[in-house]
Amino acid sequence: MTGMDELLRQGIAVPAALALGGVYVLSDTLATGPYDASFWILIVAVWLAAWQLTARLAALRPATPAAARLADIAVPLVFGATLLLLWEAVVRGLDVPGVLLPPPSAIGARIAASLPILWADFRQTFLKSVIAGYVLGCGSGFLAALLIDRSPFLKRGFLPIANLASALPIVGVAPIMVMWFGFDWPSKAAVVVVMTFFPMLVNTLAGLAAAGAMERDLMRTYAAGHGATLLKLRLPAAMPFVFNALKINSTLALIGAIVAEFFGTPIVGMGFRISAEIGRLNTDMVWAEIAVAALAGSASYGLISLVERASTFWHPSYRK
Predict the structure, then answer these.
(1) Residues 6+ apart with CB under 8 A from 237
(2) Are 187 and 260 in contact (CB under 8 A)?
(3) Quick check: 42 and 92 in contact, CB under 8 A?
(4) DSSP class of residue 129?
C-alpha cells in the first residue's frame, strides 16, 4: 500500500474532495465573476474545507514512513495554497488596487516576465553579499567562542563588548560600512558579518557548556587534555547549538544584506530593486523580490536542517 493510499484510507478522501471541488468552483468564479454574496459564501466554504483537510492531515499518525513523509509535506503545502487562494480571492473580490496589494497571479506573472532582472539581483545580494558575510560571520563567531571558552579574561572582557556590538542598529551600521568598504557587495557582506557574529558566538559558548559534569569527569579520569575533551566531548555536545545559530543566521544574513543595500549599492541587488520599484509604485515587482528572498531564505534554512539531521542523528530530538 502506497503512502497516498494509506492517507486516503484514514479519512482524508472526503475533505480532500470537498476542498478540491470548492477550489475548482472558486477558480471559475474568479475568472468570470460576479463577486456577489454567493462569492463570499463560497470563499468561506473553501476555507472551512481546507481547514478541515489541514487539521485531518496534521492529526494523522501514519503507520508507514512513506505516508508519514507525505503527510509532513502535505500539511504546509495545503496550508500555503489555501492562503494564496484566499489572498487572490479577497483582493479580487474587494477590488483592492494593485499598488496597495497585488494578487498572487500578478506577482507570479511579474516573476515570469522579470527572470533576468531577478537573477541578477539574487546573484548580487545572495551569492555575493550573503554567502561571503555568512561564512565570515559564522566562522569568526565560532572561532571566537573557542578562544573565549579557553580564556576567563576574554570571557569577562570581550563577551560584554560583543554583546554591545550585537545591539547596534543595522540602519546605523550599514551607512558606516558603505563608507568604509565602498558601494559594492563587500560593504553588504560586512553588515552580514556584524549581524551573524554574535548569535554564533553565544550559541557556541552555550553548547560548549552543555556537556555534563559526569562526562567531563570521565574524560579527566582517562587523562584527556583540553584538545581531546574539546574534540571528542564538548564539540559534539555543542553541535545542536551551533546548527541552531546557523539556521538563525541564514535568515538574518539575507535581511541584513537587503537592508544594507538601501544605503548605497550599484544599480543591482534585491534591496536596491525594492527601494527603487516602491518609489515607482511598481508593487508587483517589490513582491516578486520579496518572494525570491523568502524562497532563498527557506531553501537555506532547509539545507542547513538536512545537514544538521545528518550530523546530529544521535541527538534525542531525532530518536524515535
Answers:
(1) 207, 208, 210, 211, 215
(2) yes
(3) no
(4) I
For residue 6 the three cell numbers come to 494509506
The enclosing H or E element of 233 equals none
* CA–CA separation, 79 and 20 (whole Å): 13
Which among 111, 74, 114, 108 is positioned nearest to 88, based on CA atoms?
A: 108
Per-residue pLDDT tens over the stretch 190-211:
999 988 998 899 899 888 887 7
Taking the C-alpha atoms of residue 220 and residue 145, their distance in angstroms, rounded to an integer, is 22
By C-alpha distance, which of 149, 120, 155 is closest to 273?
A: 120
User: Model confidence at 317, in pLDDT bands (50, 70, 90)?
Assistant: low
Residues 97, 41 contacting (CB under 8 angstroms): no
CA 260 to chain centre: 19
Contact 127, 300 (CB under 8 A): no
Read off the C-alpha cell for 104.
498572487
Global pTM? Answer: 0.83
Q: How far apart are CA 195 and CA 93, in angstroms?
A: 42
pLDDT at site 6: 52
Q: What is the rounded distance in angstroms from the CA atom of residue 269 to the CA atom of residue 119?
A: 9
- Would you say how long the chain is, in residues? 320
Distance, in Å, from the CA atom of 293 to the CA atom of 287, rounded to the nearest integer, reads 10
Distance CA 158, CA 144 (A): 9
- Is 49 within 8 Å of 22 (Cβ atoms)? yes
Q: Which residues contact 87 (CB under 8 A, 6 or more apart)?
A: 103, 104
Tens digits of residue pLDDT in 48-74: 888 888 888 777 777 777 777 777 788
